[in-house]
Amino acid sequence: MYTQAMDLVPQQSESGTKETSVDENELQLQFDARIDAGEFIEAKDWMPENFRKTLIRQISQHAHSEIVGMLPEGNWVTRAPTLKRKAILLAKIQDEGGHGLYLYAAAETLGISRDQMLEALHSGRAKYSSIFNYPTLTWADMGVIGWLVDGAAIMNQVPICRCSYAPYARAMVRICREESFHQRQGFDALLTMMTKGTAGQRAMVQDAVNRWWWPSLMMFGPPDADSPNSAQSMRWGIKRISNDDLRQKFIDAAVPQSEVLGVRLPDPDLKWNETRGHYDYGPIDWKEFWQVVGGDGPCNRERLAARVSAWEDGAWVRQAAMAYAEKHAELQPAS
Ligand SMILES: [Fe+2]
Ligand SMILES: [Fe+2]
Questions:
Q1: Does residue 22 register a pLDDT over 90?
Q2: Distance in angstroms (rounded) separating the CA atoms of residues 287 and 54
């Protein structure tokens, strides 16, 4: 669990003494200038403590979202309608586990251990995306999660490929490529049901769209006016586009896609606004959002319990790996 960032504070000079000669204000000015110039910050570079803490919070929450996001879909592996759909679903869930690993590794470069991050998740102190606290009731939910949930994730995550913290930006490049496959496979599954399916299957797709549309819009976070940390994150180049602007981009992309599918989006206020050049949309139930974020969504307890029991059930694997590593180290000839 040692990371390259563990030697960040206190910094050691080559002679082994602490570097106290460089004034902190000067370092701050240099950091601000690098951010303004659009430079990337690497793990070993000096950074303000709040920048480091903000990134640890954001990257670890992102990692937690990836691995908790495996749970609602894992529920459907044994009930996929064909071998092809089962193989696709398994590959997607495996990708999400990989995304979690890249992101935990990126967060570790900031000087926090994976054990600390997982402890925060398991104790309920750390958050993950509230979308994964909704249940997956039918097979159509697998398609709608790919289309809308992974679609919203892409909209959120593409700008992070240009985030000022380089290890996070690098992880996001690969993640976004895989998310694009996730979105397409979801849309393809829905299109098959809508164009070749029965009336019952089409109704199942519509029902899933009705349930997932609004929670998907909430994935972009509260309105800009109620998002106090956003301005600082924009200043630091961690966040590039505001919550409301990303939400609008997502809606503008989703409406024509819903027309191709032949589903109705459950918002009577949704209509093209010629003047704005965007779709207008109805009010979002932020009370529901805060309730789910606060731990009181339909599946919060179930999701957390599944993660905690996976951690406990896996204890023997971690112990065996450690024992093997120690034995292997003992057998190495002394140099
Ligand atoms: Fe992912
Ligand atoms: Fe995904």
A1: no
A2: 25
